[in-house]
Amino acid sequence: MDGSTSAPARTRNGGKPIWPKIPAVFVRAMLAGHSALGLAFAALIYLVCFSGSIAVFTYEYGRWEQPAGPVLHEVSPQAADAAFRAVLAKNPKAHDLFLRLPEPASPRLSVHGDDPKGGEHTWFADASGKIVAEQKTPWSEFQAELHTVLHLPRAWGGFIVGLTGVALLSSLVSGVLSHPRVFKDAFAFRWGGSKRLQEADLHNRISVWGLPFHLIVSLTGAFLGLTVIIVGVLALATFKGDTSKAYALFRGPQVKDDPRPAAKVLDVAAAITTLKAKYPDARPTYILIEHPGETGQHAGVNLVTEGRLSRGETVVVDGAGRILGEVGYESGSVGLRVLSTMTPLHFGWFGGWPVKVAYLLLGLGLTAVTSSGVAIWLARRRDKGRPAPRWERVWIAFVWSQPVAYAFSALVALLSPTPPVVAVWGLATLAACASAVVGSPASVSVALRRISAGLIAFVAMAHIGLHARQMTDPVGWIVDAALLFTALLLAATTLTPSPEAAKA
Amino acid sequence: MSGAVDSALWGLALAPLPLAGTILLKRAWDSPGPNRPRCILAGWSLLILAIAASGPLMGPARGPFAMLTIASVVALALVAAGVERRDAKKKAPRELAPEPSDRRRVVWRGWLRGFLAGPLAGVAALGCGLAVAICAPGQIQSRMVIGGLMVPFLWAGGMAWTLSDDKILRAFAVLAGVSVVTLGAAFLKGAL
After folding, report:
1. A376-386: b (≥16 Cβ within 10 Å) or e
2. Which one, of A288, A154, A9, lies nearest residue B90 by Cα?
3. How far apart are the C-alpha atoms of B19 and A302, rounded to whole Å?
């Protein structure tokens, strides 16, 4: 947060401050550190925040990309078993199969596995368990991976995203400490006039009111991203570098690997029936069947109980369908229970659609905080007679490059049978950033917002044109409507008559 | 009604509470009259009530987190609704907050500061997390998760400190010392 805001007249009468006075030298030093950190990580934080805001609706994008379904709200254990066996028949030597059962966020029955050549596939099944289609959701997968690993090798990508989370967390700490009027100015929001004060108000108000959310997502994100390195060092200290032993502590009852053929393949229907009887309040959401058809075959069944802030409890079942025990995500130690809250807390997958919408808005708010932080620094330079016009153009072009690149990549993913989504996104980002060489920051901003609006509207129209006849999943229509609304909103921001508003 | 729809509806049903609480807080902020303390008390009470009520209605852990999130959006919407148009021609009032301190630009200090905030603070934080995971009492998984959660927090704190502290060598000495002690303890014990 930037401390360079001025107090409005009315807060001057707001009474004595209830917070201890922080020495100005300390505040100035904190501001210097806050600026340095923000500038060093600005682009990465911006990208991770923007992609994270979009990723809240990952399940919905998957449904939108393939809205023909089949839409299933519940399936029988026998249907799940049939789907599992049908996919296993495609590759009887599959190492593992991942069976996903219908749930409110994703009403599909799907099985993920590899083919004999090692290629990975996900198949959709109907209510009887018959395989009816292969999952093709390239854009949903693209946007999720951009947020989690930036499309880099998993260890490096996760580390960089985790480090970005640490930088964001650090910025929150230094921002609060460098803003002595943080609560006193909590409602002061002024627009127009000095660019620097306008951006500072935006930056500080979103930062203050969104603080609980900002702390939660940056801490959980940094933890999830840094897991690989933390576990790696831990394994180095305790298991002679064998990370699998460290991960095994979180996998519950172990089943010994035995590759000999089993008398019969694991009965998924029986396992689900047994678990439903033992856990009547829980709903199975996915089943990972390892070494199917081998003597050492077993399954981890994830059970979600409504009302709990948790990814669910995982129960391990052996090849004969006997329950071996729980991992302990909901019944185990404090550590396991805390661990199971990380993913839902980070992505907003715990309170239904109001929380998802709130996460989207607050995430975009955090994105705006990052953008305005750099804008404040640039405006401060300009105010002090040291303008950096090139950086002003580059930054605004980068900020608006992401809506352009996301929309363009979604369009290509819709229209192309084999879309190179990452390459398209990268090229669109570069092209949008290249617009910095022409025009003023205000004109670059307006142009890119208009292009974004046009592309987003085009994506929705193209989707309706392609899928309208077989859109059995209502989320397809809802996402299209949301896209059209977003396009209108973006376009409206470029129609503001006053020249100051165009500076944003 | 499914549980997901249920919790969504409860989230929406409780939203008026943080809205009313924020309105009262804004009223106290807007007009410092004799009712100000009562408005502040009532405002915070409503916010706390919303979080407390969300526990039994939406789940003891899920409810408060959901309500905190929804309350943040509601409060921001209220702040946005109260936006004031500033006169572009009018000169901005005197700035009350200080400027960032102007440091002399010395290349080696910049690199050293970057090294302290990045790798060294990271190693020190990792050392603390590892020491907790290996040396602290309690169940193994709890020690590992708590130690792991400490890493980003401590790294962030170390980053904020080293980037703002003008006495760079002091920061270097502390971080190096913490790294040696914690990693040493962790590797010496070497068993969970």
Report:
1. bbbbbbeeeee
2. A9
3. 37
Cβ-contact A444, A435 below 8 angstroms = yes
Q: Per-residue pLDDT averaged across A158-166, rounded?
A: 96
Instruction: With CB atoms and an 8 Å threshold, state whether A338 touches B6.
Output: no
**Number of cross-chain residue pairs from A and B with Cβ atoms under 8 Å apart:** 293
CB contact under 8 Å between B11 and A355, yes or no, is: yes
What's the CA gap between A280 and A282, in Å, rounded? Answer: 6
pLDDT exceeds 60 at position A368: yes
Beta partners for residue A124, in sequence order = A110, A133
Residues 6+ apart with CB under 8 A from A377: A35, A38, A39
Task: Quote the CA–CA distance of B3 and A281 in Å, as a whole number.
Answer: 11
Contact A334, B147 (CB under 8 A): no
Determine the residue among A34, A177, A209, A217 to mutate to test chain B binding: the one whose Cβ has the most chain B Cβ atoms within 10 Å: A209
Predicted confidence (pLDDT) at residue B6 exceeds the cutoff of 90: no
Instruction: Measure the CA–CA gap between A268 and A94, rounded to whole angstroms.
Output: 16
CA neighbor of A65 nearest in space, from A459, A390, A456, A429: A459
A325: left (phi over 0), alpha (psi -120 to 50) or beta: left
DSSP A384: T
Q: Give the confidence band of A433 by pLDDT, cuts at 50, 70, 90.
A: very high
End-to-end CA distance of chain B: give it in Å, rounded: 46
What is the C-alpha to C-alpha distance for residues B24 and B19, in angstroms, rounded to an integer? 9
The candidate with the shortest Cα–Cα distance to B70, out of A154, A460, A348, is A348
Contact (CB, 8 A) for B178 and A194? no
Say if the Cβ atoms of B141 and A332 lie within 8 Å.
yes
3-class DSSP state of A323: strand
The residue among A399, A483, A412, A486 whose CA lies nearest residue A446 is A399
Question: A377-416: per-residue pLDDT in tens?
Answer: 999 899 889 999 999 999 999 999 999 999 999 999 999 9
Q: How far apart are CA A312 and CA A301, in angstroms?
A: 9
Quick check: A433 and A416 in contact, CB under 8 A? no
Cis peptide before A70 (omega within 30 of 0): yes
Q: Which two tokens stand for residue A395?
A: 């930054």
* Angle, vertex CA A315, rays to CA A310 and CA A316, nearest 5: 145
Q: How far apart are CA B64 and CA B168, in angstroms?
A: 41
Kindly state whether B48 is in contact with chain A, defined as any CB-CB distance less than 8 angstroms: no
What are the helix (H) ranges across B31-139?
36-58, 62-81, 107-115, 121-135
Residue A303: both structure tokens together: 């059970």
pLDDT at residue A439, rounded to an integer: 85
Provide the ipTM: 0.91
Query: How many angstroms separate the CA atoms of B170 and A485, rounded?
Result: 54
CB contact B142 to A (< 8 Å): yes
- A 10 A CB-CB count for A489 gives 12
